[in-house]
Every structure is written in C-alpha cells, then in structure tokens.
Amino acid sequence: KGTLAGVSQKKIIDSSKRFFRWAKSTYPREMNSLPVAWVDTLRLSRQPQVSTENVFVTLEEVQTLISVPVPENNLVLLRDQAAAAMLFLSGIRASAFTTLPISGVDLENLTLRQWPELGVHTKNSKKATTFLLNIPELLDPVRRHRGHAARPLARDGHRRSARPQRGDVRRRGA
Description:
Distance between the termini: 56 Å
Largest sheet: 3 strands, antiparallel
Helix content: 25-40%
Structural class: mainly alpha
Order of helices and strands: HHHHHEEEH
C-alpha cells in the first residue's frame, strides 16, 4: 500500500532527470556542484516483483447482483445490474465500457464495437470487436435496460410515469 506502480516511478525518475539536465544547462553557475554523472545514476532500484493473485468475479456473484428485485421505474439500479452483467459477459475494461455508445452494442450478434472512432476509450486506442458470452440469464438485464435507456429520467433517477402526477406542469401539445 502507498507504493506507486513501476511505470509511474519510471516516469517520475525520467522527469527528474530531464529537470536536472535542464537546470544544469539553464543555470550552470547555480548548478555547478551538481555532477552530470550523478543525474545519470538516477534509476529505479531493482525490487523483486511481488506476485499478487488476481481476483475474478464469479458467475454466481454476478447472478446474485442481477437477481436483486428492482422496481421497473428505477433506471439507476436497472442500469447498474445491466452494467454488472455486461462487464462480466464481455470482459471489457471499465474505461472502455463507460465510453461505449449504444451504437457500439449489437445484442443480436452478441458483439461490442470497441472502436476509438465511436468515442470508446480503449487501451492504447486499439480497435476491437468483442464477443459477448451467450449466457441468457445475464443477457436479460442488458436487454431489459436497453429498452429503457432512451426514456428520460426524473431528478431522482426514476423513469417518469406516462400519467401526469400531482404537481406536474405540462404544456399542451408537447
């Protein structure tokens, strides 16, 4: 805990080296006592890699998440259940999933178009078409949410009723 990733540490060391070289060339008098050889010695210390066991979400855990009863008008919870199912079915990265437009989802062919030209933020901007696992009980909440996705939400995250509620102000002809 509290340790930066190796890539982050390398970037910091590289930035520090560039800074010291810049300072040495820009302020030679003030940086006279800083030997260039010392700047070149800045390196990551070789530390043994600590192997960590990957943690995976099981099918049973996802089924538990999506089996919680949710009112049909609570789109926020329906969305969360659909997201849990979709993440499991596809293995998509969270950053790609949150930027995936509906046009990138093809449930009939069980594919996701993770294409940067659609605005999807993929790792290294790679274009990929991902195939979803064909697990009907996990596809159901995704399909159910897809039908609700275009409907407007009220401020509380619930879908508005088709009937006017007390206090609703609606314009005629709208």
